[in-house]
Design goal:
By secondary structure, the protein is mainly alpha-helical. The chain has 5 helices and 2 strands. It has a two-stranded parallel ribbon. The termini are far apart.
């Protein structure tokens, strides 16, 4: 018999990734990776709000993003939520969906210590 041609769906989705703006933890030079700290506190700093709003002005964003076709997901860490709020407001998107699976890596005992301690982790990662 005749073999039916397989139909393959064609998707034209685009995916963009944003890093959060400068946070209070960034300015304090401390590691915040525990949800108990990062979800309720350590959002964008004052300078972070200003820089994020400037970087995410509507005229600086890709024009192909349409509010009715765009879904924004964010980590539930406050710094990421704040960044997503600025982005969604700039493009008149619906409120971002908070997704805990988008959280950053957990740094355990290094929580709330100086960011210089990241070097220990990167060294360990390189050796592993």
């Amino acid at each position: 018999g005749a073999k039916e041609e397989e139909k393959v769906a064609v998707y034209r989705n685009a995916y963009y990734v944003l890093r959060h703006g400068v946070s209070e933890a960034n300015e304090q030079g401390i590691i915040v990776s525990d949800p108990n700290n990062g979800v309720p506190r350590f959002g964008l700093s004052e300078a972070g709000w200003v820089a994020t709003k400037d970087a995410l002005q509507a005229d600086k964003l890709p024009p192909a993003l349409h509010p009715e076709k765009t879904v924004v997901f964010t980590s539930d860490f406050l710094r990421a939520v704040h960044t997503a709020e600025v982005f969604c407001e700039a493009r008149q998107f619906a409120t971002a969906v908070r997704e805990p699976r988008l959280r950053e890596r957990y740094f355990g005992t290094l929580e709330l210590t100086a960011t210089i301690n990241y070097e220990k982790v990167w060294k360990h990662d390189a050796e592993s």
